[in-house]
Each structure stands twice: as C-alpha cells, then as structure tokens.
Amino acid sequence: MGTWGAIIMSFFGAVFAALTMHWQWSISGAVLAVPFVVFAAIGLAAVHVIRLPGSGIVPSQEVERTIMWSSIAEGVGLFLAANIVINLHHPELLLPAMALVVGLHFLPIAHAASFRPFYALGATLILSAGTGFTLGAPTGGTVAGWMAAVSLWIAAVLAVLRDRRLKSGAVQAV
Fold first, then answer.
1. For residue 11, what are the contacts with CB-CB under 8 A and spacing of at least 6?
2. How far apart are CA 55 and CA 97, in angstroms?
C-alpha cells in the first residue's frame, strides 16, 4: 500500500511490459531491460521516501494477513492460468489471463484495507484482461500487457507520492 507496495507493483509492471515486448513483438536482447529502467526510477523514488522520517503507511495486521493470502492466491492463480492457456494451446491468452489474476488479487486487499484505489486498480487490470480476451491475438495480448504494465506503474507512482505526503504531514492516514 505504501512505498514497499510501489516497489512490487513497479517491478511487475516492468515484467508485464517486458513479456509483452518479447511475446507479442518478438523483441529480444538488451532492449527488454528498458521497462526495468522505469522500475528502477520508481524504486529509487520509493527508497528515498522510505528513508524519510516518519512511519508513513502502516497496514494493520488484518490487512497484512489479507495481502499475504491474496499474494499466495495470486501466485497459485498465475501458475494455474499459465498451465490452462498453454494446455489449451492458446498461449496468446497468457497475458490477458495474467492480468485477470493480478487484478482479482487486488480486490480482497482493497476490501480489507477499505482502500478504493485498489478497487480501481483491480478493475482496470480486469478490464485490460477482458479487452485482451476480446480482441484476440496478437492485438489482445499487446493491449492487455501494456494496459497492465501502465496501470501498475501509475499505481506505484501514486503510492510513492501518497506515502511522501503522509510522511510530510500533508495527509492523514486512513
């Protein structure tokens, strides 16, 4: 939810972008590191905010537990989704399936934390998955992958800014 979550979200945004570039556009080599430059930039900003004085965003134990279980379910869901689309011989649906699982994983966290932006992020990722499924290959995978990457990056930047404002005393924690 705070800067640590931003680091994780920006990393997975970079993963979505790199996978999209490789799987949908057949790009390989060093250029696949470009999305990780975005991750590094967000990560550096997050590290700066982490080092600021103050506690920032501190989730309750219930929210931490929900994040843990939701993340475990996400890992299992990604494994299952990958196996299902591969065994059905539809690898072009892998990025939309991944976006669906990641989007669903944000919904219980949004509920436990009473944090509406996570509902929006989950809905955006689910919408990107639906768009990817609807458009079909290769456009669907490209759209789903980039929508997922960009939405995760935007959420990460907003999380860093929110934690920075909270530590500066400009915003009250929820």
1. 39, 43
2. 36
d(CA 13, CA 19): 10
- Residue 9 phi, psi dihedral angles, 5° rounding: -65, -40
User: How much is the CA Rg of the chain, to the nearest whole Å?
Assistant: 17
What sign results for the dihedral spanned by CA atoms 171, 165, 152, 75? negative
For residue 98, the Cα-to-chain-centroid distance in whole angstroms is 10
What confidence tens digit (pLDDT) does each residue in 89-104 have? Answer: 999 999 999 999 999 9
Is residue 124 a contact partner of residue 103, using CB atoms and an 8 Å limit?
Answer: yes
3-state helix, strand, coil in the chain (%, to 5): 85, 0, 15
- Rounded CA-CA distance 150/127 in Å is 13
- How does DSSP assign 106-152, residue by residue? HHHHHHHHT-HHHHHHHHHHHHHHHHHHHH-TTHHHHHHHHHHHHHH
pTM over 0.85: yes
For 62, the token pair is 């219930």
Residue reference for tokens 């920032």: 56
